[in-house]
């Protein structure tokens, strides 16, 4: 590999160059995936979360799709109106609202899930085994980094737009133990 991405500036430059290209491919695939379905990317994400583990509380769902509970409630209302999910009170605690897929919602989520499975299988076949392992490890690290950044932004309450590198590193250490 030609460049040493351990250097912060080289890493940053490489990510700045790669991210728009990666986003292009991901957005194009998402557009192909959702064409004609009449739902948004956020809605399909909620359906896929429920497909993997149905009958979640609103709190669980909002946490999994990274939305405030009020925004998740609006999203679920739209999905209820599309007959993709149903909402009902929890049997043990009526204050808790549970969300589950309808038969139509499950069918749609399965279609998208299987399409994504084929796409990622095709991607995996283009990579060497060690590249696949490195990609998953790197994506997990990136998610930890973004989660740490998000926590810092929330903690700073918009006092500053960007935490320092040392603050980010401290946040990453907190996330990974």
Descriptive overview:
There is one protein chain. The chain is mainly α and 177 residues long. It has 2 domains: 36-126, Arc Repressor Mutant, subunit A; 128-177. It is built from 7 helices and 3 strands; from the N terminus they run H-H-E-H-H-E-E-H-H-H. The mean pLDDT is 88.
Briefly summarize what is shown:
With 177 residues, this protein is mainly α.
From the 3D structure, determine the CATH topology of the largest domain: Arc Repressor Mutant, subunit A
Task: Supply the helix-strand structural class.
Answer: mainly alpha
The tally of structural domains comes to 2
- Estimate the global geometry from the Cα principal axes: globular
Note the run of SSEs as H and E.
Answer: HHEHHEEHHH
CATH architecture of the largest domain, please? Answer: Orthogonal Bundle
Number of strands: 3
Share of residues in helices:
55-70%
Classified in CATH, the superfamily of the largest domain is: Winged helix-like DNA-binding domain superfamily/Winged helix DNA-binding domain
CATH class label of the largest domain: Mainly Alpha
Cα gyration radius (Å): 19 Å
Stretches where pLDDT is under 50 for at least 5 consecutive residues are none
Main sheet: strands, sense, barrel: 3 strands, antiparallel
Q: Give me the number of helical elements.
A: 7
Rounded to the nearest angstrom, the distance between the terminal CA atoms is: 30 Å
